[in-house]
Amino acid sequence: FWIGLDWVGFAVSIIRQLIKITTTTSYHHHRHLVMASSSASSSAASASASASLGGTGVGTGVRRISQEMLHQRRSSPPPSPAKAVSRIASAPCRLHEQDPSLSPSPPSSKAPECYLPKADAVIGHRGLGSNLGPKSLDTLEGYFAGRIRENTMLSFKTAATCGADFVELDVQVTKDGVPVVWHDDWIHYKHFGEEEKVMTRTIREMTIAEFKQLSYMATVCPERPVVLMRKFDKKSDEFRPWVCRQEDELPTLETVLKGLPIYVGINLELKFEDEHTHVERKELEDRIAAIMACLDQHCSAGRKIVLSSFSPDACTIVSELNPVYPLMMLTDAGVIKYEDERRNSLEAAKKLAVDLKLAGVVLLSHVIPDASMLRDFAAQGLLFMSYGERNNDGAYSLNQLTMGMRGVIVDDVLGVHNAVSARAALSLA
């Protein structure tokens, strides 16, 4: 039976890879998120997305854009139908007939459905998986470091090849206003030959020139004069070299938007400091404006985009900007306790999502509620996705999809994709 099932799954996988999906959906125009009646305004937006390497803080152009976005954003007129896009990837198919009560009511979100993942989406965590992911996926010198460096173009493209519908990535903004892809709150590194001294910086302290130089020296330079360091054990403060089997440069958001195939959706997590680091609202506005300006300039029509953040303040600001793209609140539902009560329960996350008219909530898979709670989400027009190590269990992910999850964020992209494909094969048999 299992041999037969394997052949069915293999055949379906081949067929799905040969299908080319022609889409003529009219996507809401997202080329002009900032109201501008002159070329000078457009130039200011351009300057904010590719700020100078001098590093004097987020530029005045970004500050001006943030104010325009806060007070002058409007809905853009719908464009003409997008050009048909051929996609060599899995064709959309439902794995199951969901309980109708789990289907969201007409969404309260301001964002259109066309940017959201299809049902039963497999979303690659930081691409092909976090370098802090399960040790069963790969080992290097006794601890997990990763086959491919997380949050790089190589990782994103490989995830797409393995069947990811979306990739999840983390965006922060440099000192001079350039959005870059990096997960951790800190960058730890040391220079070759300096055995003890580990340097520590934040993205917002670095210029784009410094970020690119560090990236080159630590990842692709043959001499490797710099080694990135990381704490791989949450119970220890010990730094270890963060070296991957396959390296790639740390990209800017612009690089990802231009280089990732258009059929691969992007879940942009907006990363900010922990709550113990005070950041003025104005600075948050400027950084968010820089990210939105980059999307405005470089995101191709037809690209699926979802924004998300653990920060209630960031969600509030993005909501005030009235973005075209769907926005979801991330929550661990109180597994870690925060001073901000809006982060400490699923109910608080749901309330924030409803109040701000977000697209939905991204839940930690360890704390998935029962179906009745998800029905309550759906009744209020909220979508739900999940993240966490338990999602690497194909059966667990399939169960969530059956409950109505729109998508699951996973490290084991290929394994979960195969589980989804096998389930689809059974439904077609």
Describe this structure in words.
It is built from 12 helices and 13 strands. It is an alpha/beta fold and 429 residues long. The protein has a single domain (2-142, 151-184, 261-428), classed as TIM Barrel (Alpha-Beta Barrel), CATH 3.20.20. The strands form 2 sheets. An 8-stranded parallel barrel has the order 1-2-8-9-10-11-12-13, surrounded by 7 helices. Helix 6 (253-259) packs parallel to helix 7 (281-298). The model is unreliable at 1-97 and 139-145 (pLDDT under 50).
Query: Nearest-angstrom radius of gyration?
Result: 21 Å
Mind telling me the CATH class?
A: Alpha Beta
Q: What share of residues is helical?
A: 25-40%
- Count of domains: 1
Count of helical stretches = 12
- The poorly predicted ranges are 1-97, 139-145
Number of strands: 13
CATH architecture: Alpha-Beta Barrel
Strand order of the largest sheet: 1-2-8-9-10-11-12-13
SSE-based structural type: alpha/beta
Shape: globular
First-to-last CA distance: 13 Å
The fourth-level CATH homologous superfamily is: Phosphatidylinositol (PI) phosphodiesterase
